[in-house]
## 1
Amino acid sequence: MEKLTNRSVVASDKKMTFMERIYVPAILKGMSITITHFFKKKTTINYPEEKREFSKVYRGQHVLKRDDEGRERCTACGLCAVACPAEAITMVAAERKPGEEHLYREEKYAAIYEINMLRCIYCGDCEDACPKEAIFLTDRIVASELC
Amino acid sequence: MELTTLLFKTIFLFIILLVTLVVAMYSTYAERKVAAFMQDRNGPNRAGPFGLLQPLADGLKMFMKEEIIPLTANKYLFILGPSIAMTTALLTGVVIPWGDTLTIGDHVYSLQMADLNIGILYVFAMVSIGVYGIMIGGWASNNKYALLGAIRAASQMISYELAMGMSIIALVLTTGSLSLHDIVAQQHGMHWNIFYQPLGFFIFLTCAFAETNRAPFDLPECETELIGGYHTEYSSMKLGFYLFAEYVNMFISSAVIATLYFGGYNMPFIDQLGLSSNAVTFIGMGFFFIKIFAFIFLFMWIRWTLPRFRYDQLMNMGWKGLIPLAIFNILATGAYYFFTSLK
Ligand code: SF4
Ligand code: SF4
């Protein structure tokens, strides 16, 4: 079988040679490795001050969008909830009353729309399923207290 | 004793105590920084600039924690354990010569609390008593993990104290004195004992790691097997004492190593600079602390490099490795002095 890395070694329980038994060469070798790491650039990203660069397609916090006139787009069709593999979305639909046309674009709207952020796996399927282009996953990081 | 001398000694004692505690405190910070740096991390950097207030925050946390004494524990011994550990750790600093003499007015003061003529033996005695802190604490907890940790600590200490003592015998053969003051005074210039006793130094260093229970010899408290070892049942500042005593021990061991093998406060070529004796003393003291910090760094460097030894490896190395080596070292040193004296 082809080896996965060029660093793999065959384990064996052969008797240690003298050089191995006095440990010192191995210890010195290990110490030389750690000291080089001591001066290496640190990989830590100091989060609130520094931010990691995000990919353009990063999927973060969800939003329900409004249209150009400021009306809610969602019509509470439930397709997103059906599409959701994690079953994270629940909603309660309500009928639009006369006089509320400036608030809701469709005749039906979501009175309550909840996504359980502990269940959500940020797959973006809800975004794909939505026929009204209402729900989107933004590049915002989900704050931990929302969970 | 004159009053001025007494006053000087008292002030000096407090300074030494303070320095020891502060160094130990910041060793905990340094340890975390060194560990982080060796693992390509940043380490504590939130409390104060560069995280410098982290030790204070840690100490505060320790004080605020609930004090728990297990019902089945032996209460007096349970409290006695950490007290012994801390006290003995601090007591050793008394015999270490922190610097040469200081001249104030027409008085000459020695920067050593007590110049015992058996200084080395005193250090050994204190280190040996230190194991009682661990043993009593582990036994009084009435917990099998704590007891296992305590037993390991005791056997490890006994095994390695032998080799350590024997490496010192060879050193005493070369110096001809047990007083730490004399030993340092003899190493003036570049006559550091490390050049005369390299093997002895190596043995001593290894044993110092074992005596301070530092990795790779931290079997008494190995988290992976014994939860916390002897301090499993401890909480609050009693746990803090145990952990802190380890850092005090590390500081003192570094000081002892620097004193015995690296010339203490002696700095090469200081005589050629033509400075006043007080300036020489202060520079020497600074140099001594640089040596100490270098050894503390070495302690940490090794801790974050090596995995823990297995128990049988530990015992094998102590009894079959270091002790024969130490005996050989004594013989070789003795033979050398015997044959050079013949000529
Ligand atoms: S992103 Fe995926 S898991 Fe999260 S709510 Fe949308 S469909 Fe469900
Ligand atoms: S699929 Fe779109 S329109 Fe339908 S309920 Fe979900 S968000 Fe609203």
## 2
Amino acid sequence: MQQTWAIISLTWKAALRFRLIWVLAVLLVLCVVGLPLIIKDDGTARGLTQILMTYTLSAITAILGLATIWLSCGTLARDVEECQMQMVATKPIHRWQIWLGKWLGIMGLNAALLALAGGTVYGMVLFRSSKLSEKQREILYREVLIGRASVKEAVRDLEPQVEEVFQKEAPQRLTADEMQDKKLIEGFKAQIREAYKAREQIIRPGYMREWKLNVPAAQGFATNHIVVLRVKFMSASGGSQSYPTIWEVGKPESPNQVRATKMLTTDTFHEFPIPANTFEKDGTLTVRLTNPSQNNVPLLAPLEEGLEVLYRESSFILNFVRGLAIIFCWFGLLAALGLTAASFMSFSMAAFACIGLLIVVMSGGILKEVIKDRTLFGRGGHEEAQTEVVWTKVKEGVDVVMIGVYGVLLGVIQAVEDYSPIESLSSGRSITWGQLAKAYGLMWLLFGGVCSTVGIITFTRRELATAQSKV
Amino acid sequence: MTAIETLNRGSGGQPSTETVISVRGLVKVFKDFWGRPKARAVDNVSFDVRRGEIFGLLGPNGSGKSTTIKMLLGLLHPTKGHIEVFGKSPRDVATKSRIGYLPEESYLYRYLNCHETLDFFGNLFQLPDGERQKRAEQLLEMVGLNQTRTRVVGEFSKGMQRRIGLAQALINDPDLVILDEPTAGLDPIGCREVKDLILALAQRGKTVILSSHLLADVEDLCDRVVIYYGGKIQADGTLKELLTERDSMRITTPPLSQETMQRVLEVIRKDVAEDKIHVDNPTQNLESYFLGVVQRARAAGETSGATSGHHVAAYLQSGGEGKSPSQADKMLERLAAPQAVATPTISNQTAPAAPAVDATKLAALTQSQPPLQSVPTSTTELKIDLSKANEKLSGMLGGDKK
Ligand SMILES: Nc1ncnc2c1ncn2[C@@H]1O[C@H](COP(=O)(O)OP(=O)(O)O)[C@@H](O)[C@H]1O
Ligand SMILES: [Mg+2]
């Protein structure tokens, strides 16, 4: 422990004496204070959040993330290249202790810098919010500066219906041969499924759609507990227009039911508060949306994001800290990645490789498409010429390898999407302890564990004196 | 310390038979990125180092000394061959606590100051707080850097960095000290002090391995040497075995009267042909002369560079195995009182002035016949001709250029 601690404090001293940490600190504070000055917000709560939370937190993550990679590659690779490692590794300290000490040192710096930057963001939000209008400030505290849990309607299982229709229709529409074709059958079922989904979504003029949501936590709500409906719908005529909609929330015929007509625009999210006493005793909430007949156009409430209930679960500060903790979790993985790369590469190589990998993961959208399609080259038609058969085989070979590699990346990309706290923070959604634990479990224990095991083993077996000093 | 004293010490039966390091058939081939052999740095080297001896790796630049040392420390892995250090693999972490290592160059953290540097390495050895502080103080005092403790090591001159490197190699009170060219970059006083320190360590029962291309270093210090050239061992053995010229001898006396001299020569001429007899005045070598001058100048005052070191750190003194306490204490006394260093060195260290043969032939070198013990008077000292030794080694190594 004394030895590991010596390495940790050495890492800190290096960062302090090379003034790196001061440069970073100034950069971060400038970013948090300066960015909102350059980009004027529009005086609304949402505009303010967009800039203060989304932009600045993203900038902080980017700066610290790059710095983490740079530092972690540098602290190990430089020590090897400049031969100081020869002095350290000939002392009675295990190589894994050196490695771990470096990691802990970097994470200590990250913790300090993240706390500084996070504190400044928090301060800025409070400060700037005091300049908003009364109404906007209320929105801010209801929609952003809060940790809200989200509940959606349980997904209805369509499969029994799909199967039923298929059994009824298939014998009439498909030949015996076609009944053997699995692909064809799947396609047929998919069509039926889509038809059902469409029917679920559509609300014709003069009709009503009812949601039943279950929020067990609602049993403990006080009457002034913050509860918000978040809704989105489209119109069959497309485009972005406003329509009157009738909302009824609460058990029908109950005195607590509320009813309102709202002019809402299609294709955007709307949030409006509802009284906490609209929940029934067992936590059930009934929401009805009526498409008034004068609209003359069907409305579509998407299955996935049509309606959502958000309610206060924790304070903003707690949520904010948990959000930063997830960002910190990411840095831990980056630091392990950097150290691992530096365990067998030179500084420049290691930094280049890590940043390259980071870019690939960040641009994960394209990658995801590729993997979904299961091919790089796209699916060709069936009528390929003979000469193309060989080429097809090559393509298939490449595809198999690449998809394997991408498969691993996909896991990471999925994690990036699942654990992006900035989005949650700027929409006032709570990051639960469970999510936090999962993030650390996945990223530190699983990815980080594998990564650092590889790094430590390579570093332990490595010859440390092959580099000649360039003095 | 004179050559003769070194030899005597070496032959004094001090080194035990216990083997500290054993190297068998060691080969190191450096490969390039594609695994193609690039350089055969060490080629089939075998040797043993016994406890308590000062073992020298002598060889010109690039002959594979540092590569051998790095393999002893587990920094490089042998291509072939077997190494045992204290009976363990060189990669064993626990045995590292018994080893002190000074690399060929001062690979120090440039942003730490001397005190932090020693503190850092002390922590790696898991020394408790108080002990670490104490040793750091004493070591800085010993290597003469206690006045520059708050300056960062990056600003130091090469010699000053070397001193810190040496201090860090001793912070764990090691049983085995491995020094790669310990005197490189040091001023003559520093060299002398380092050499004396090495001798003091050996007196305390520590095993010392040092590499050097400087013949004088090796000659002054080592009990046994291996001589490297092109990665292979070209010669090995005790210095005495390697250097004694069995076919000549030399007698040194205070100035004799013309008459006595004539009589002595008379006797010698009976056995030896006139042209085989060589008479001259002994001269100091430059090292001892230089040291004398500096000692006198030191009274004059301060320097902004490294001061010369003083006391051997107390904890190093106490670790003695009590081989020959009286001699060891004498050594420490000398280190504690620097001005004492010069005197014995000047009076003892001699080298013949070039060819100028005094016509009166005041001294003579006889052929090997009379054994050492039979040198008649107590005022007559036997000297081994250092310049001859240098010539001989130089011959073997083909000079120490490159
Ligand atoms: N990391 C390395 N890569 C390639 N060649 C090396 C490396 N280290 C040393 N050598 C070569 O091995 C030989 C021995 O070097 P070294 O052991 O440093 O010599 P010295 O006796 O001066 O200490 C030299 O020819 C040197 O060029
Ligand atoms: Mg060398």
